[in-house]
Design brief:
The complex is a heterodimer. By secondary structure, chain A is of the alpha+beta class. Helices cover about 35% and strands about 25% of the residues of chain A. Chain A is globular, with a radius of gyration of 25 Å. Chain B contains 30 helices and 3 strands. In chain B, about 35% of the residues are buried. Chain B is elongated and about 125 Å long. Chain B is mostly helical. The chains are: A alpha+beta, B mainly alpha. The interface between A and B is large, with 64 and 62 residues.
Chain lengths: ~450, ~525
């Protein structure tokens, strides 16, 4: 039987506070005509909840997913009935002896079949007309080309008129350009252009940072017209940096890497209206890093299947690119296990060497995972550094919160640390405290 | 031209614009020479500059060298207490989720999850466990804001918390508390008395007072005249523990202090000292002002006020200037009564405290007399008197509303625990105005009878909505203090649903430690 979740774990799934409250009220036995747990694979909670209509709502939760189904008309997901059912179960008041009704059994079967079916078959119900697809692709390509050509002129204008003036014009000088790129279906580069505003006036060296970013955008606008002459991997990188989507099916169809993947860190960032969850994995055998991204619009719950500190035997499929970093979990062979100590950590010199190699493959690389062995956190002139056993140090990013949490865990002793290295320094993500992995 | 100079040249040109300044990229040798020379800076300066910058950006980023010559920090000492179980650690992290004032779910009786923290800390402290290191920054931040939690945070934080607090200016003053708390451990460090912060020095003095009371007093006497008034008052207060006749001369001298604050502390100490000359003087003053009269079988008191506040009275801690709204003679009277040992009245009037309090008073000073008694009972922590005063209808009528203000609120801590509970129950049943402080002073967890009375109010008031404030106050206190088995079975209102939820959380929180 699956371990019961805590109340807080359940409430964390709620899309908003109102749902939490509504669910707590609904959790009372008075609202339920019948409830039960259908053991099996996947284990399913079910219940009949008296709603405002004449017939009760049929609510099901797949505990392995988690996935939800409810016959209520709510557009919130998961709905309050599903949450209330989970809350009661976490309190231990859902009987596991009630006979499972047909509708719940049916759903359980469909969930089991779904789990057994490859994702590709599930999602593409009908293969799209290849001619249509080609037409659409051509249309997008020409829009992108026009957008990037405009960006190219805009970049040159910045340098021609001088970037010093932005200190007075302030934020938003790049917003119009960014919006044009969104219209041109180049969302990723649009985001990069919008973020330029944050560099203005940020620290003494802001002008140098700004020139770096403008130059790297120019590298992209110069590369796109020649994309046919680039190697297919580099072309994929350019397309990804511009924002061409890669269908998951295509990724899943690529070669897979089976390994014992250790989940090293999880961090949520919000971009515009979207929450992005970044999870770094490390392959114990392959000694390869992998980045798994998931996205959620407001009110949606993020994927919860990758838990830092655990490891799993799984197949990963990498997205195409000159530097293959982003990946999806294609198939897992068994449940996650406790991760244990993290192998593959290196000293600072080796980490910098690998970064240089990665950068050679992908010049736009802005965040590279560094798994550092026996580093000590130390402060010098109000700046934080990690210092390895050989006495080599790396600066932490000057912006952002001081790393007190990491400092507390390390206690001035050497420790294994995962961080993202970028042009402005290292950002600690997690640290091994001797018995477990702790988020930085 | 070296690489850095070339890069600076590009940045300068980009800052002012290529319209005004053309970058020059002459004479670079090495691997970049040939690609850079192919860039046409002259024909299209802006594009050429960007291309050159892109190349140099990659080159510079890939060529970052490690920083050398950094010093290592002093590592934290090894811990001597085990960490809390993983479930308890997860719970603690959950209490901090969403920030300190993130509202609880819905309109719960709790302000925020953090309100569960004191209970968590006290369980951890009782079991000799320590909090996981990653939560220490959050705990130290909280300890800065909530001074009541400081000792618990530093205890449960283990040696790592002390080490960490030493690393950051904002946390460093918390260590004063640690020094205070460490008690005798501080005695190893005699320098602490000479060079420590006032709190550290008070901690040192208190520790010494615990092992050698006379030595502590003599140590204080050595530097007495050189201490600022604030410190004199603070250190003198330390002598309260282990006070004996041997301290009387020193305290008497302190009555001559320049500072009213110091005189005040000295007079309180001397009031506590049986047989002190100070007590004798005050008693004589008080007995001159309060006399028993009999008319037939009826007995009453005649209370008069002092004609003046002479030097002797002033020296004994009586403040001359009354607070605004109080007459000065009434004020002197009140202070004399407040500084007089309460047993004086039992002996002089040959009556128990309850009867003394109930005696009718002739003249205008009845209320002042009772107010003085209340102050005395609070200062002297006299449980019998506190109980008698709180039970007296006249006292309650005069001073009991609002009930959360001194001096009456100061009586609650002086009451024996069972009396506090009794008064709280009576209050909850509506006999007296609601006092948050009284309810707060009841031992935790609440007795079944008290819990029942509180739940009754919530049930009753929930149906008569105007009392929202009261409802929230009681529910807020009840959530943290109800015994865990008091989970109400039925939930007539949302408030009860929330209350039951909080109690379930507290039960979980306790279980997670085993």
């Amino acid at each position: 039987m699956i371990d019961r979740w805590s109340t807080d774990q359940v409430l964390a799934l709620a899309p908003d506070a109102a749902s939490q409250k509504a669910a707590r009220k609904l959790a009372s036995p008075a609202h339920w005509k019948d409830r039960g747990v259908a053991s099996g694979d996947p284990p399913v909670l079910w219940g009949l909840c008296a709603g405002s209509g004449s017939s009760p709502y049929q609510t099901c939760v797949d505990l392995a997913g988690p996935a939800y189904r409810c016959s209520c008309p709510s557009r919130k997901f998961p709905c309050k009935h599903s949450l209330a059912l989970l809350l009661s179960w976490s309190d231990g008041v859902v009987p596991d002896t009630s006979p499972t009704p047909d509708w719940a059994e049916q759903w359980q079967r469909s969930r089991a079949e779904r789990a057994a079916t490859p994702r590709a078959r599930r999602e593409g119900t009908e293969p799209p007309d290849p001619k249509d697809a080609q037409k659409r692709a051509a249309r997008r390509a020409s829009r992108v080309a026009a957008g990037l050509a405009e960006l190219d002129r805009w970049l040159a204008d910045q340098v021609r008129h001088g970037i010093a003036g932005h200190q007075h014009t302030g934020y938003g000088f790049a917003d119009t350009m960014a919006a044009r790129l969104v219209d041109a279906q180049a969302p990723t580069v649009a985001g990069a252009v919008r973020r330029l505003a944050g560099i203005v006036g940020d620290g003494e060296l802001w002008a140098a940072r700004m020139l770096e970013e403008l130059a790297l955008l120019r590298l992209l606008t110069a590369a796109y017209p020649r994309i046919d002459q680039l190697s297919s991997d580099l072309a994929a990188t350019v397309r990804a940096r511009i924002g061409f989507p890669v269908p998951v099916d295509e990724v899943l169809a690529r070669q897979r890497v089976r390994d014992r993947w250790q989940v090293l860190s999880l961090r949520d960032e919000s971009h515009d209206q979207l929450t992005v969850r970044r999870v770094w994995l490390h392959g114990a055998e392959s000694d390869r890093p992998a980045l798994v991204l998931s996205f959620a619009a407001p009110g949606q719950a993020l994927a919860v299947d990758l838990v830092p500190g655990t490891a799993m035997d799984a197949d990963l499929a990498y997205y195409p690119g000159a530097l293959q970093l982003r990946a999806v979990v294609a198939a897992s062979h068994g449940p996650p296990q406790p991760g244990g100590p993290v192998p593959g950590a290196t000293n600072v010199a080796t980490a910098l060497c690998r970064y240089a190699t990665a950068l050679a493959a992908e010049p736009w690389l802005d965040r590279w995972p560094m798994l550092l062995a026996d580093v000590t956190l130390t402060r010098h002139d109000n700046r934080w550094y990690v210092l390895d056993a050989a006495g080599d140090g790396l600066p932490l990013r000057a912006s952002g919160d001081p790393p007190w949490r990491t400092a507390a865990v390390a206690g001035g002793h050497p420790a294994t640390l995962l961080g993202e290295w970028g042009p402005s320094g290292l950002r600690p993500l997690s640290i091994w405290n001797g018995t477990r992995l702790v988020a930085a | 031209m070296n690489l850095n100079a070339a890069w600076q040249d590009l940045v300068s040109a980009a800052l002012v614009g290529t319209d005004r300044r053309t970058p020059s990229l002459p004479g670079l040798s090495g691997p970049l020479a040939s690609p850079l020379s192919s860039m046409d800076v002259d024909r299209s300066p802006a594009e050429g500059l960007l291309d050159a910058a892109a190349l140099l950006t990659g080159y510079r980023r890939a060529g970052v060298l490690p920083v050398t010559g950094l010093a290592r920090p002093e590592p934290a000492p090894a811990e001597d207490r085990p960490e809390v179980p993983p479930a308890a650690a997860r719970r603690l992290a959950g209490l901090f989720d969403g920030g300190r004032y993130s509202p609880w779910i819905g309109e719960s009786p709790y302000r925020s999850r953090i309100d569960l923290l004191p209970e968590w800390l006290s369980i951890a402290a009782d079991r000799g466990l320590r909090a996981p290191a990653e939560l220490l920054p959050a705990l130290l931040d909280l300890a800065r804001a909530e001074s009541a939690l400081r000792p618990a945070v530093l205890r449960v934080g283990g040696r790592r918390a002390t080490w960490l607090a030493g690393q950051r200016r904002e946390w460093r003053h918390l260590l004063d508390v640690a020094a205070n708390d460490a008690g005798t451990a501080a005695l190893d460090d005699q320098l602490l008395w000479q060079t420590g912060s006032p709190a550290q020095r008070a901690g040192y003095l208190a520790a010494l007072r615990g092992t050698d009371p006379d030595a502590a007093r003599d140590l204080l006497a050595d530097t007495w005249t050189r201490e600022p008034a604030e410190a004199r008052a603070r250190f003198l207060r330390v002598l309260r523990d282990g006070l004996t006749e041997a301290d009387e001369p020193f305290c008497e001298r302190a009555l001559d202090d320049r500072s009213q604050q110091v005189r005040e502390v000295a007079s309180r100490l001397l009031t506590r000292l049986p047989g002190s000359a100070f007590r004798q003087r005050m008693t004589e003053r008080a007995l001159r002002l309060v006399q028993v009269r009999r008319t037939g079988r009826r007995v009453h008191l005649v209370v008069t006020s002092p004609e003046s506040c002479d030097d002797a009275m002033r020296r004994d801690g009586v403040a001359v200037k009354p607070p605004s709204g109080t007459g000065e003679r009434a004020w002197w009277l009140e202070q004399v009564i407040a500084h007089t040992v309460l047993d004086t009245w039992v002996a002089a009037l040959d009556r128990d405290p309850a009867t003394v309090v109930a005696l009718p008073v002739a003249g205008d000073f009845g209320a002042v007399w009772r107010r003085g008694l209340v102050q005395a009972a609070a200062d002297q922590r006299e449980p019998r008197w506190a109980a008698a005063l709180l039970d007296d209808e006249t006292v309650r009528a005069e001073l009991g509303d609002p009930p959360d203000r001194p001096p009456i609120a100061d009586l609650y801590p002086a009451l024996p625990a069972e009396d506090r509970v009794r008064h709280a129950i009576r209050m909850l049943r509506g006999a007296t105005p609601f006092s948050q402080r009284l309810l707060e002073s009841c031992p935790v967890p609440w007795s079944d009878e008290l819990a029942g009375a509180a739940l009754d109010v919530l049930r009753r008031t929930a149906q008569e909505p105007p009392q929202q404030r009261l409802l929230a106050d009681i529910a807020g206190l009840a959530a943290a203090r109800l015994p865990l088995h008091a989970v109400p079975a039925e939930h007539p209102t949302d408030l009860f649903t929330d209350l039951a939820h909080v109690l379930r959380l507290r039960a979980d929180l306790t279980k997670e430690f085993s």
